[in-house]
Amino acid sequence: MKKSYMQKNILPSLSGRVWGVALLLLCVPFFIACNDEWKDEQYAHYISFKAPLNDNGVTAVYVPYTRHSDDGTPEIGIGKSYYDLPVLVSGTTDNNRDINVKIGLSDTLAQLNFERFGNPTYRSDIVDLYYKDMQNFASFPSTLLIPKGENKALLRVSFDFAKDGGIDMVEKWVLPLEIQKDGSYEPHPRKNYAKAMLRVYPYNDYSGNYSATTLTVSNKGDETNATGMETARGYVVDENTIFFYAGTVDETRTDRRKYKVFFKFNPANESGTEGTVDVYSDNAENNGFVNNSAITRFQIYEQQDDIQPWLLHHYVIISNIDYEYIDEPVAGIQMPYVVKGILTLERQLNTQIPNEDQAIQW
Q1: In sequence order, what are the beta bridge partners of 60?
Q2: Which residues, in sequence order, are CB contacts of 23 under 8 Å at separation 6+?
Q3: Which of 40, 288, 346, 354 is buried deepest, with most CB atoms within 10 A?
Q4: Contact call for residues 319 and 292 (beta carbons, < 8 A)
Q5: 3-class secondary-structure state, position 312
Q6: Bigger pLDDT: 77 vs 34
Q7: Global pTM?
Q8: Cα→Cα distances 63→26, 148, 194, 288, Å
Q9: By C-alpha distance, which of 129, 124, 140, 149 is closest to 180?
Q10: Could you tell me which residues are beta bridge partners of residue 176?
Q11: In whole angstroms, what separates CA 323 from the centre of its chain?
């Protein structure tokens, strides 16, 4: 018997719908199973530092030279400070147990220096560019507990910058840390995640990268052809003193130690927003330093950002700078220079962050 037109068209349609429903019902457990898989750990609970490296193989860390309490008094003493380094548990699920992480000094600093700066066999003075281990000024606990349910803990690294006569920032100080192996956990296998190479920069109220576009350097006797600089870094000496390298000398010079110019700030009011600056050198007999300024002054002021009201611009301006020095880029060749003008430091502070060092946008 021949099927009617409706039988020909309706029956295949119903058959297709039945198969579609059946296929959908078969897929439901499949999708439920896929979703359940995400409840399980997708990776592993590796242990790592939160210390991303820059192109020079280190992590810049800014720490107050003296850690202060809210009332402005030293929290643990002059020249004493600390930094809280995050230690992380990786993975897609929460840490389900107490983990005692062992922390120690890394032995990779020598290799880093060799790779970044070169072999001292061929140039002996290259070691003056090397990073220097600062463990003598730092201390930290050998174990750190990451409690069950927590995926992060903070390793308190303590610093004593005033120790042994004070830290000399001519050296490029690095604290090399590593997460040591232990049978109860696994350090992160990815390169550098289980190591932290902390390039530590202590700072005070006056240190940092100054704009030097209004500071000119000229050959002595040819001041009409003076040229400006872009930046000049002021390094911490103590609470009220920093040093710059003279003129265009910077930390890429192996002989930079000879060209330190000290700026000691003498506040003239209780708020410390203005005063005089003593400018001098501890090596004048070798670098020919002469301070020609009758009086060098500083001024500090702050300004709220017009667009981002939570952002505060903090300025330190050093004016009436006028000194001369003798550069000796090559043995036997002496070149006298005159440095004149103004230096300006700007710090941008996020007023929404109470922590002193984290509020500064370095």
Answers
A1: 199
A2: none
A3: 288
A4: no
A5: strand
A6: 77
A7: 0.86
A8: 60, 30, 22, 33
A9: 140
A10: 197
A11: 31
Two structure tokens written together for 121: 């066999």
97: tokens are: 């147990």
Give the pLDDT score at 5.
45
Give the residue from 236, 292, 228 showing the smallest Cα distance to 263.
236
The CA distance from 65 to 81, in Å, is 6
Pairwise CA distance, residues 295 & 277, whole Å: 7
Amino acid at 51: A
336 touches 324 (CB < 8 A): yes
Nearest to 50, CA basis, from 188, 175, 165: 188
Q: What is the pLDDT of residues 261-288, one digit of tens each?
A: 999 999 999 899 999 999 999 999 999 9
**End-to-end CA separation in angstroms for the chain:** 89
At residue 17, the pLDDT reads 53
- Burial classification of residue 64, based on how many CB atoms lie within 10 Å of its CB (0-12 exposed, 13-18 middle, 19 or more buried): buried
Asked if 296 contacts 319 with a C-beta cutoff of 8 angstroms, the reply is: yes
Q: Which residue has the higher pLDDT, 243 or 70?
A: 243
CA-to-CA distance for 8 and 241, rounded, in angstroms? 97
Assess whether pLDDT exceeds 50 at residue 250. yes
Task: Give rounded-to-5 percent helix, strand, coil for the chain.
Answer: 20, 45, 40
Q: Give phi and psi for 199, each to the nearest 5.
A: -85, 105
DSSP state of 285: H
Q: What is the pLDDT of residues 145-203, one digit of tens each?
A: 999 999 999 999 999 999 999 999 999 999 999 999 998 999 999 878 999 999 999 99
**Model confidence over 5-16: pLDDT tens digits?**
444 444 445 455
CB 149 within 8 A of CB 107: no
**What is the C-alpha separation between 214 and 319, in angstroms, rounded?**
10
Q: Which helix (H) or strand (E) holds 64?
A: strand 59-64
